[in-house]
Amino acid sequence: MNEAEAFFVGTLGDPFGLVSVPHPHFEGAATLASAYPVSSLTSASTAVAGLALSDLLAVLGWPGRPVTVVRHLADRWFAAPVRPLGWTLPSPWDQIAGDYAARDGWIRLHTNAPRHRAAALAVLGVAADRDAVTAAVGGWFVDELEAAVVAAGGAAAGMRSAHEWTGHPQGVAVAAEPLVRRLEGGRDTADSSWEPAIERPLTGLRVLDLTRVLAGPSATRLLAGLGADVLRIDPPDWDEPAVVLVTGFGKRSARLDARKPEGLERLRALLAGADVVVHGYRPGALATLGLDSSERAQLRPGLVDVSLTAYGQSGPWAGRRGFDSLVQMSAGIADTGMRSAGAGRPVPLPVQALDYATGNLLAAAVLSGLRDRVRGGAGSSWRASLARTAVELERGRAIGPDVVAEPPSCEGREFETGWGPVELLAAPVRVGGVDLAWPHGSYPLGSDEPTW
Predict the structure, then answer these.
(1) Residue 328 phi, psi dihedral angles, 5° rounding
(2) pLDDT tens per residue across span 325-354
(3) Nearest-angstrom CA–CA distance, 445 and 253
(4) How far does Cα 378 stand from its chain's mean position?
(5) CA separation for the pair 346, 177 (Å, rounded)
(6) Of 188, 275, 324, 355, which one is the catalytic site residue?
(7) Residue 154: C-alpha distances to residues 184, 214, 223 (Å)
(8) Does the annotation mark 324 as catalytic?
């Protein structure tokens, strides 16, 4: 048993009730050096998504489909699956985003969103200049600045050790949660255009994508690769071009303003026509629009409803804004990396592994929810978080480090995108008989109409 198999068995376990699938096969080698078994997490979480697909296929009448994960490809999909051809990919980071030394430790400011940057700068009382921000942060204590930025509507996280996190009220709450929580939904009485086929098992399935940045969009990218009609919805003022380029393959994308009556009615109509909704809003955000979980289930009986949060579903930070890099700071990952490397500043994981691993879990939740709907005729709700995935990564350290090798060269397929030609690597998982492929490249947000 290699370390990826050990991680799969010893940490991720089986939150999806997979009963009719063969054990996954792992080939290739780990390529990501870290204080954590991050390569094992990439491969094990990829395997979970593959197994959930195999289990769905069994219920649909195609049993025993083997699952193979190529480890170096899984690593590359967590790092850089898209290579621009003849041009340069823009940085996904705002000029102010990053780690700063405060009076008693380190804090990370996440300022990619204009409103998050404005909140941080308002608290610090400086202009958007990195030197000015550095000087201003140096006069604050970590906990006080973190609390002030969050209270102002921004996103920040102080660096804590793994030991400190295990004793923190939010760390305690998250560790007590299941890796993926499942709740029973209502009976499936709605029409669906889903027409499964072994090569493209999600053909005709309607997936409403209400997610942003990485974890949720990477999950729905996988669903699009299996044939689903994925429609991403964003508000008029949101953009993330460097990220959408990577996560938008095979999807359609539209904009609407759900704060306006006509936009809200359009969103309700889209929900009523969906088979699946994946959303990454903070807890309660959809409820403020009159679209809480019970209303979503009434709009579309049998809905598979999958949601993501940063810091979990319980505890004092359950409603806090968060991103992969912030959770790494909070949960002790950046501190462990720093200590392991003998460095003088935070050392994060080599890839945004919490995002992409949780994305694989979200995709597995969708596939398992569809399995349950086919088998029992009912929808379901599923909940996951970046912080809970971090718990599994921390537990994985007990298994031992990855044995890392040099990554081999990998070929992919060329696509046209809204930014230029790119090469997309071959998929990191193979499931017997399935053609995991994307019909088109990525395009800017809002390129389509908000309709099925």
Answers:
(1) -60, -35
(2) 999 999 999 999 999 999 999 999 999 999
(3) 5
(4) 25
(5) 27
(6) 355
(7) 34, 19, 31
(8) no
Give the Cα-Cα-Cα angle 286, 288, 290 (nearest 5 degrees): 75
Answer whether 120's CB lies under 8 Å from 157's CB: no
Can you give the pTM of this predicted structure? Answer: 0.97
Q: CA 41, 43, 48 angle in degrees (round to 5)?
A: 90
The 8-class DSSP code of residue 249 comes to: T
- Asked whether the beta carbons of 366 and 219 are under 8 A apart, the reply is yes
At 261, which amino acid appears? P
Q: Note whether 351 and 38 are within 8 A (CB).
A: yes
**CA-based nearest residue to 122, from 157, 93, 150, 159:** 150
CA distance 348 to 328: 7
SS (H, E, C) 282-326: CCCCCHHHCCCHHHHHHHCCCCEEEEEECCCCCCCCCCCCCCHHH
CB atoms near residue 452 (< 10 Å) = 14
Go through the chain and tell me how many residues it has: 452
Q: pLDDT by residue (tens digit) across 141-174?
A: 999 999 999 999 999 999 999 999 999 999 999 9
